[in-house]
Structure formats: structure tokens, C-alpha cells
Amino acid sequence: MWKENVIDLKLTRFFEISARALLSLLIFAILLAILAAIIGTFHDLRLVMGHDMHGAFRTILVDVLTVLAIVEVLRTALAYFTEGRVKVTYIIDTVLVTVLTEVMAFWYRDMNWEKITMVIALVLSLAAVRIITVRFSPRRLREEL
Fold this sequence. Notes:
Number of helices: 5
InterPro entries: P_starv_induced_PsiE-like
Protein name: Phosphate-starvation-inducible E
Main location: membrane
Low-confidence stretches: none
Number of domains: 1
Distance between the termini: 38 Å
Order of helices and strands: HHHHH
Shape: flat
Radius of gyration: 21 Å
Number of strands: 0
Keywords: Cell membrane, Membrane, Transmembrane, Transmembrane helix
Membrane topology: Multi-pass membrane protein
């Protein structure tokens, strides 16, 4: 019995150390992706000098929103690194930023109303879930008690 507990503790410790090491590599990769996206955004600023201002602004807008989505992924990874769990609100924020990036891109495309309706329903659903997760979060419930 005692040996089983020691083995379980060692395996748990090994898993935690391995997960932290891999998460550190992931955070480094995310930071490199953010840096590359920012460099790409500055590179796309050259498009403003061209004749198609509308297309240039669309490209830059999508680039900036993509960087913000990557930042939300970084925030989720850092929350797991510090707290040992993933917060649902961070995941929902990441998905919302990504979906809103697509919505912004819709402004520059011809979309049928069914797809637009589905995207609006998705955004409203995510917003409702986000409100519910904040309202009924474990931390908030503990504070109320």
C-alpha cells in the first residue's frame, strides 16, 4: 500500500514536470508566432501605398485580429502554467476573437444570409456562455459564501 502511494506520487510528479516543460516550449512557440505575425503585419503596411486601399486595410485588419487571437491563446497557456488548470473564460475569449476576426473578413466578401445568421448565432451563444461562466465561476461562488 505504501509503495503504491510512493509510485503514484512519483508518476504524478513526473507528469507535472513533463507537462510544465512541454508547456514552456509551447509558450515559446506562441511568442515566436506572435512576433512573426507582428512582422507580417508591418510588412503588409506596404500595401497601403498601393491603389487598393480597401484591400490593404482588410489585410491589415485581419492580421491585427489574428495577432489578438494568438495573444488569447498565450493567455490561456499562461493561465494553465500558473494555476494548473485551463479557464473556460479564456478559451471562450479565444474563440470569440477568432470568430470576430472571421466576421470582420465577412465585411469584405459576398456571403449568403444563412452563413451570416449562423455566425451571429455562434457569437451570441458564445457571449451567453461567457456571461454564464463569469456569473457562476467557482471563485465567485466561494467569495459569495
